[in-house]
Amino acid sequence: MSEFSSLIGIGAALCVGAASPGPSFVMVARTAASAGRTNGLNAALGMGLGALLFAAASLLGLNALFLAVPALYAALKVVGGFYLAYIGIQIWRGASQQLDVSDATLESAKPRKGYFLLGLATQVSNPKTAIVYASVFAAFLPATPSIQFNLLVVALVFLIEAGWYAIVATVLSSEAPRSVYLRFKKWGDRSAGGIMGALGLKLAASATQH
After folding, report:
1. How many domains does the chain divide into?
2. Which of 32, 50, 171, 177 fits 40 for a cystine, CB–CB 3.0-4.6 Å?
């Protein structure tokens, strides 16, 4: 398989994976609707960086380390799962709080690096991402990829992940979706918190599965 064909295959597989609903989507969507486009984009950049780190680690043999030390993989799933559950609880607890997210307020709001860190932490909290990348790479990487090709793959991962969540942030920070969010904020936040918490507990529980 040529490097060009490999790159196309990896890109297509990762695009499908990025668009699949999960904790990352829930976090970016809620951030964009409640904190504005800029902070939503900050979260998207954090997602991209987290994906880049996992992709680089996978290329360097993180999957092999997980296979050699199953306890490490299990421990990371427990820690990551409880972190996601914690975020879910925080979202649920804040469901009844009123927000001032008028256009003027959001336009004057300052970007907060905390949303970038939240996006990064949400992405790296799920070590299964590294396994997904390792599986995709195993399926599409050429037998002897060059260093330049590996660097290009890592850059592609960042562009796909950050790009997708930037689209999510841009769409859901616009007036119409934001109005819907405000109208149903209480139940929307409780649903988002419940989903996030359930996904986190599911990840933690999967640590005991073989």
Report:
1. 1
2. 32
Q: What is the pLDDT of residue 108?
A: 45
- Burial bucket for residue 189 (CB in 10 Å: 0-12, 13-18, 19+): buried
List, for residues 51-68, the tens digit of each pLDDT value. Answer: 999 888 888 876 677 777
Residue pLDDT, tens place only, 17-47: 787 767 888 888 888 887 888 899 999 999 9
pLDDT at 104: 43
Beta-carbon neighbour count of residue 31 at 10 Å?
Answer: 28
The CA-CA-CA angle for residues 20, 24, 25, to 5°, reads 60
CB 26 within 8 A of CB 196: yes
Number of Cβ atoms within 10 Å of the Cβ of 89: 15
pTM: 0.74
Rounded Cα distance between 89 and 121, Å, is: 16
HEC per residue, 41-67: HHHHHHHHHHHHHHHHHHHCCHHHHHH
Q: In which domain, by residue range, is 137 found?
A: 3-208
